[in-house]
Amino acid sequence: MPSAHGAVLALLTLLFFFRVLGQALVVFFSLSWLPSTEQWASGLVPYPILLTVQGVMLIGMTKIVSDVWRGKGFFTQTRLRLARFLVAFSSIYASSMLLRYVITMILRPEMRWYGGTIPIFFHFVLAAFLYTWGNFHAREAIFASPDSAC
């Protein structure tokens, strides 16, 4: 039976996949019922590079989900340092996205409350993925060796 961590990681990966798919459908097929191209990304990274990076991320995320879901594989090897890093980094990442949202809403009042938030929301999805994976490692480390995890 898959762990709760595996199910949450799978859901977050699926959400990110739909984000990548949604933007690709708009860019390549100009679907009018989806948000415009400008709403999907900040424009700082050219779309071909962004799509490539997102594809690599999805491959990595899928492998992590597969390993955690099955409870075995490279990405499930207990690493307490990795757990600490992932939890701390994901917290900083999510906090920076919250700050980005607040600054965007202050500097661009015409975007309140949901304008330009697609990239920010999906950065939260990625931060949640990292946090969940870190939490998985932390729990595994604690259950593997309760004395050394403290």
Walk me through this protein's architecture.
The protein is an all-alpha fold and 150 residues long. It has one domain (4-144). Helix content is 73%, strand content 0%. It contains five helices and no strands. The chain has helices at 4-29, 37-40, 47-70, 80-107, 118-144. Helix 1 packs antiparallel against helix 3 (47-70) and helix 1 runs antiparallel to helix 5 (118-144). The longest helix has 28 residues, at 80-107.
Summarize the structure.
By secondary structure, the chain is mainly α.
Biggest sheet, open or closed, and with what strands and sense?
A: none
Low-confidence stretches: none
Helix-strand makeup class: mainly alpha
Residue fraction in strands = under 5%
String of helices and strands: HHHHH
Name its key features.
mainly alpha, about 150 residues, 5 helices
Question: How is the topology of this model organized?
Answer:
Elements: H1 4-29, H2 37-40, H3 47-70, H4 80-107, H5 118-144
Helix pairs in contact: 1-3, 1-5, 4-5
